[in-house]
Specification:
Chain A: It comes from Tinamus guttatus. The structure holds 2 protein chains of 2 kinds. By secondary structure, chain A is an alpha/beta fold. Chain A is built from 10 helices and 7 strands. Chain A has one domain: 3-Layer(aba) Sandwich (Rossmann fold). The chains are: A alpha/beta, B mainly alpha.
Chain lengths: 261, 300
């Protein structure tokens, strides 16, 4: 797994765009919308390599915070000078609020690409990049509000260990969100999808990234991943409650969500 | 499942330790006996130990088996937990409105992460529905108690008009703490995906009121009464949200007038009916008399 992603790191984003025809952005946006994080949330993004989820999270939280501030200002039309001065101070101290993202990945190359992207796009605060294995996270118990793993869990050798780790590091009331390829429930679409996956994707891999084998592996690992209901049962086994899933694009991708209650 | 234990502990902040933990434990204590015997499939044995909370003053944590034996119990606790979060969220409504933010704040007061608000819809619908159903339950209890007092003979039975007025006023008064954000709540209740539930709550409340008012009609009257009362309630609610008089006097006066109108109309309708009947009888009598006089009735 490590070597696959070492090869793939640099071209990861481009390949994502071309393989999913850019739809992966929409999928990730839906994930964030479902998460609906409030300012002050601590997010752990596992297998988050190039930081897509992390950046979206930061944007989302920022806009929520702006809206909140605007609403507060609207309600306080008659502020005294002292109050105005106080509010300026408060903003200077924590403009981003106290939301934080920790991006964890097993692969240093992916994290490096992610860090460069962050610098390029101008994300400076609230981000941490940590190397770690999803089956054995380098964090203490009950630290995070939300745990996400987008397109990463199928690459984990022991999925149940990863789920248990997720349960461990989440605070009570915390949420587990998993965005992953899943079984298509429409038979016609399923045939088209199979055709596309096995014929076109490895070719794209060869052409764009010069690597046929890695993308062959990718497609196979998608097929091997358990279907929605089975994965839901695995999540429940790890101890999560109110586990549910939402199919996107009729099952090509599914978002599973569970709560540690 | 072992998730039950964290539920118990983290959800009993010190000031509520007595009631909350007692409730959950009672539920779990019943099931303690069976799981204790079959404590085999424990993959999570390690977990309970590292999550021993310091704030849990009561006894040792029972061991739990996997999913099977606890399902009904967990389902119960999930709902209870959701209710508790929503109730806690109500106090943040004046500040944050009926929204996921208020629910997140409510979850935080219970010691849960704000992400728990993800259990509910993003638009705060569940919060409004929970509040409305809570108000309806309170109203039922109130009316039940009043009825008991009347049966015991301690208070006099009110006229229907007075009864309806008092019941509606009591119900509307429950909105007063949230009156500023109530327009938002009304708009949420009117969202298409909420209409079935909100309509349900509304009709059951009106049903309740008529039931305690002693309505026993089984004909068209049943529908008209409910329609009329629903109309009165909705219009009074709308008057209330823009009422600025002290203690909503204008609203209560409006309510009084509307109920009086409705009762008057009902009486008038009754009168018309009986007048009509009397009229018809009179005409019949006149016709028979004419027939007699003209000799048509005679037998030949």
């Amino acid at each position: 797994v490590y070597q696959v992603f070492e090869n793939v790191a640099q071209k990861y984003d481009i390949m994502n765009d071309s393989m999913s025809l850019g739809i992966h952005r929409l999928w990730k946006d839906v994930l964030l919308h479902k998460m609906n994080p409030s300012p002050g949330t601590l997010l752990l993004d596992v297998a988050g390599g190039t930081g897509d989820i992390a950046f979206r999270f930061i944007n989302y939280v920022n806009s929520v915070r702006e809206r909140q501030l605007r609403r507060k200002l609207k309600n306080h039309q008659n502020l005294s000078w002292q109050e105005i001065a106080d509010s300026y101070q408060e903003e200077a101290v924590k403009p981003f609020g106290d939301s934080q993202v920790v991006v964890c990945d097993i692969n240093k190359e992916m994290l490096k690409v992610g860090r460069q992207k962050a610098q390029r796009l101008g994300y400076s605060e609230g981000l941490s990049w940590v190397v770690g294995n999803a089956e054995e996270l380098p964090f203490g118990d009950e630290k995070f509000d939300v745990y996400t793993i987008a397109f990463g869990i199928r690459n984990v050798t022991h999925i149940d260990l990863a789920l248990q780790e997720a349960y461990r590091v989440l605070k009570p009331g915390g949420r587990f969100l998993c965005l992953e390829f899943s079984q298509v429930n429409n038979p016609l679409l399923s045939r088209l999808y199979d055709l596309y996956s096995f014929q076109i994707i490895p070719v794209l891999g060869e052409v764009i990234a010069g690597d046929w084998k890695s993308y062959q592996y990718l497609v196979e690992s998608i097929r091997r991943f358990p279907p929605q209901e089975e994965f839901k049962a695995m999540i429940e086994d790890a101890g999560f409650l109110k586990v549910d899933y939402q199919n996107l694009t009729s099952g090509i991708v599914a978002i599973h969500s569970g709560f540690k209650l | 499942m072992e998730a039950e234990a964290p539920v118990r502990c983290q959800l009993c902040p010190p000031q509520r330790a007595l009631q909350a933990s007692a409730a959950l434990r009672r539920v779990s204590d019943e099931h303690k006996k069976e799981p204790a015997a079959s404590s085999s499939q424990h993959q999570f044995d390690s977990h309970p130990t590292d999550q021993q909370p310091e704030q849990e003053p009561q006894g040792p944590r029972p061991s739990y088996t996997g999913q099977g034996g606890q399902e009904s119990e967990d389902y119960e606790s999930e709902e209870q937990l959701q209710h508790r979060i929503l109730t806690a969220a109500l106090e943040f409504v004046p500040e944050h409105g009926w929204s996921a933010e208020a629910i997140a704040e409510g979850a935080k007061t219970l010691g849960l992460s704000a992400a728990a608000a993800g259990m509910f819809h993003n638009d705060g619908s569940e919060l409004v529905l929970h509040f409305v159903s809570q108000c309806n339950t309170e109203l039922s209890e109130l009316l039940e108690q009043e009825q008991k007092l009347v049966q015991l003979g301690e208070t006099e039975k009110k006229t229907t008009e007075q009864f309806l007025r008092d019941a509606l006023e009591a119900r509307l008064r429950m909105l007063i703490p949230y009156i500023e954000k109530w327009p938002q709540a009304i708009s949420i209740l009117l969202l298409p995906h909420n209409i079935p539930s909100s309509l349900n709550l509304l009709t059951s409340m009106i049903d309740d009121i008529w039931h305690y008012a002693g309505d026993q009609s089984t004909d068209l009257n049943w529908y008209t009464r409910r329609a009329v009362l629903t109309g009165i309630y909705n219009t009074t609610e709308l008057v209330m949200i823009q009422d600025t008089s002290p203690d909503f006097e204008d609203t209560w006066r409006f309510l009084e007038n509307r109920v009086a109108d409705a009762v008057n109309m009902h009486n008038t309708a009754k009168q018309i009916k009986s007048t009509g009947e009397a009229l018809v009888q009179g005409l019949m009598g006149a016709a028979v008399t004419v027939k007699n006089l003209s000799g048509l009735n005679q037998r030949r």
